[in-house]
Here is the input.
Amino acid sequence: MIHARNLTKVVWDGSIETTVLQNVNIDIEQGEYVAILGPSGSGKSTLVNTIGLIEKPTSGELFLMGHEVSRLNERQRSNLRRGGIGFVFQNFGLIDELNVYENIELPLRYLQYGKKERQSKVNAVLSKLQITHLRHFFPNQLAALQKQLVGIGRAVITQPDLIIADEPTGNLTSACGNKVMEVLSSLNEEGFTIVMSTHSAMEADRGQRVIQLFDGHIITENIKNHL
Ligand code: ADP
Ligand code: MG
Here is the structure.
């Protein structure tokens, strides 16, 4: 489903050239839960944003759901992203002016779903995440964990092929972070493919596979033994 070949990203940081990703090779199959583990600055966000078509690599190839993405134009990239990828962000990324219901509904509006269908999908997600009672609340009325549950709701509402969660517990206490980890695990059990970045080895252990990043390159890849 995801095949990255020699992905490299070079940026200019002031007057200094920095290699943020260096020859990264990754293969992720449908249904997997893969954790990207690395300290701050190791390139996790750059990597997951590249896989998620938010950023472009400097060189290398990325095959995503059967497309070599450098061959796609902007419109095709954004269609693939909107229909196929759900994002969960460290800072939640909710729209302050929209209530919980509307935040979760928004991706369906972009995809031009009709009102009836939007309603039934949003209600199902609210109920699954046990946040139906929050439907009329605005982000500034929510606790951090509640915000992230809404962020997850928005990510899954389109039934994407892939969920990308970039340090989804970064702004949460460990107890709240645990809850988010449990929700992601149960989404994976339902069949969602998940790529999650974290700086916590304990959190990374939730994945079936841990890819460890350091200074922009993969240092270890460990496949867990399910015995
Ligand atoms: P992580 O998510 O693991 O903290 P990032 O992918 O955000 O790592 O960043 C990796 C490194 O690349 C950091 O040192 C960051 O400052 C640098 N970096 C990333 N993007 C840019 C950019 N557009 N311009 C300059 N430096 C960048
Ligand atoms: Mg980051």
Summary: The mean pLDDT is 94. The pocket of magnesium ion (ligand 2) is lined by residues 44-45, 166-167 (CB under 6 Å).
